[in-house]
Amino acid sequence: MSVHRFLMVLTLSLSGISAIMAQPSAPAPAARQSSFPPVGLAFTETMQVNLFNQAANPPNGTAASCTGTVSFLDENGKAIPKSGGNFTVAAGDTQSISLLGTVVDASMGSRAEIRAVVSLAVTRGTPCSLVQSLETFDSSTGATHVYLTASIASTLDSIFSRL
Q1: Do 105 and 133 meet the contact criterion of CB atoms below 8 Å apart?
Q2: What CATH architecture does domain 29-162 belong to?
């Protein structure tokens, strides 16, 4: 074998190895994210995200469950410290995650624009149909000031069929 041919085979072999090594690893778990529009929150108010899983448990297979996180973001898109949290909502159950206006950074003033973001983990084979609402209410009287709805209403298997 000539030196030229040897170098050509070596170059092709190495480029094939680097192409194999450059292949992406296994895909990250799928997730869906929804965001409520910014809503003003005063120190005397509470903001609450309500999560309801309307999926039914199948007769056979994995029980319906929605899991994910709720984040509360300031007007600059930064997560508000010590706010939000994880959720797991079984079929027919509701869970709420709240943010007290008194927790919001004082540098935001007496009223802050807050955006709630719901990130839903997608687990193949686990039914989930998440309905969400956001409300603000007076922390002392409970009187509602704002009420918004949203939903991630699809079985997670149908999400995978579109990926």
Answers
A1: no
A2: Sandwich (2.60)
